[in-house]
Design goal:
Strand content: 15-25%
Distance between the termini: 22 Å
Structural class: alpha/beta
Shape: globular
Length: 134
């Protein structure tokens, strides 16, 4: 029903973004909203986990290093796979390595993207994951 309402209102899907850098969150959320997505965002891991439990998100875009709060995107990925398994997950990071990407894939990440990455590319990946045209 919620997805039908999003489609009727012109919205593609509902996304959650988690990054400890507020300027990045604001820029990304504005870009995705202008592209037709409903977006929630937070810089707090605990808030993201509460939102994931209480809402239905098509996709989570999460930074790998949430250094300001002593958390990491791989831990959030594990949480999503346990508590919101239908949510697609994109890790967007400036600190990736082949070993970290392998671990993320082992934990079930849907896409692992290196920063900096043009937002149009991130939008395209998210659109492909959630089945929406971008």
């Amino acid at each position: 029903m919620a997805r039908e309402l999003l489609l009727l209102s012109g919205m593609k899907s509902r996304l959650l973004m988690l990054d400890d850098e507020l300027p990045i969150l604001k820029a990304m959320s504005t870009y995705f909203e202008l592209s037709g997505y409903a977006v929630d965002y937070t810089a707090e891991r605990e808030e993201a986990e509460a939102l994931l439990v209480n809402n239905n998100y098509a996709c989570l875009i999460v930074d790998l290093r949430l250094t300001a709060h002593g958390a990491d995107g791989l831990d959030v990925l594990s949480f999503v796979r346990e508590r919101a398994p239908s949510t697609r997950v994109v890790i967007l990071t400036a600190y990736g390595s082949p070993a970290v990407e392998r671990e993320a894939r082992r934990r079930g990440v849907d896409a692992f993207l290196q920063k900096p990455r043009p937002l149009a590319e991130v939008l395209s990946v998210v659109g492909a994951l959630v089945g929406a045209s971008s």
